[in-house]
Amino acid sequence: MIEVSGLTKTYGSTRAVNDLSFEVRPGVVTGFLGPNGAGKTTTMRLILGLDRPTAGAATIGGKPYRRLGAPLHTVGSMLDAKAVHPGRTAYNHLLSLALGNGIPRRRVDEVIEQVGLGSVARRRTGGFSLGMSQRLGIAGALLGDPQVLLFDEPVNGLDPEGIHWVRSLMRDLAARGRTVFVSSHLLSEMSQTAERLIVIGRGELIADTTTEEFIERASTGYVRVRGPEPGRVKEVLEAAGATVAESGHALHVTGMTVERISDLAAEHGLRLHEVAPQHASLEEAFLTLTRQSVEYHARSEGER
Ligand SMILES: Nc1ncnc2c1ncn2[C@@H]1O[C@H](COP(=O)(O)OP(=O)(O)OP(=O)(O)O)[C@@H](O)[C@H]1O
């Protein structure tokens, strides 16, 4: 379990994380979602004790990272996949991590196989693609077989097979009772993996809910209506309280269900050729909810 309470971090005049509080529970994949610059990496660094908070606290299993007796056995993380000594082989990189943390050598072989790097384990990591580095980073996170795992944008740079593999791995870890906290700036990506979402924008909490509920809440749907007499249909629907916009040959109706639209049309003897609910795409929905924060960042960057 990860607990974050009143967490705040400022860098000069930038408030990267602002009074953030949430819990990440075991047994499900929890997505950490926010547009670029929202403060995801900063929050993860604070949880992992890589930076000191300006205010508030973050704990793992009730303790701050610095006070964990065997950190690699408690929490595994992958923040920056490229942060590996380029002259070392993948095997030696993992071996030095293992030896420094009292982890047996055979565990290195196990995780190398688990992440599919067996054939390149003796190659220097400097020549690794981003995808291979991501796999190596994930291997490092798994090394101590920890209860809590944090991954910062783990599918970045992976091919479709790699993406599929990461998603299955996250779900599998959660199914085995681990606490899995994974960041992304794409709601579509999170919707494939995460059961719960912590959504942030501008360093502040926007939502802490199930993925299903978040998508439902974010969806700004309308009903597309088409028929031979659009003018009359519009009049009838508006008279009954709907908002109707014309779009080419169709009407876009908000504030009224498909059933009510059909019933009203039938009552007034109006034929309809199409009554189709439309949902905003996931990314549109997400951007609507986080637009304020995106605009804020676009503005503040422009001002510099
Ligand atoms: N070391 C630092 N010094 C100064 N500003 C920083 C530092 N680290 C982060 N920031 C600023 O804090 C804000 C949050 O950055 P952070 O990297 O945590 O966001 P993010 O959500 O992880 O974004 P991305 O997906 O782009 O990595 C940004 O405005 C960033 O410029």
UniProtKB/TrEMBL annotation:
One annotated GO molecular function: ATP binding
Keyword tags: ATP-binding, Nucleotide-binding, Transport
Tagged with keyword Lipid biosynthesis: no
Record-linked InterPro entries: AAA+_ATPase, ABC_transporter-like_ATP-bd, ABC_transporter-like_CS, P-loop_NTPase
A Pfam family annotated for this UniProt entry: ABC_tran
Sequence ranges assigned to domain ABC transporter in this UniProt record: 2-227
Keyword check for Transferase: no
Family stated for the protein in its record: Belongs to the ABC transporter superfamily.
Protein's recorded name: ATP-binding cassette domain-containing protein
Lineage of origin: Bacteria, Bacillati, Actinomycetota, Actinomycetes, Streptosporangiales
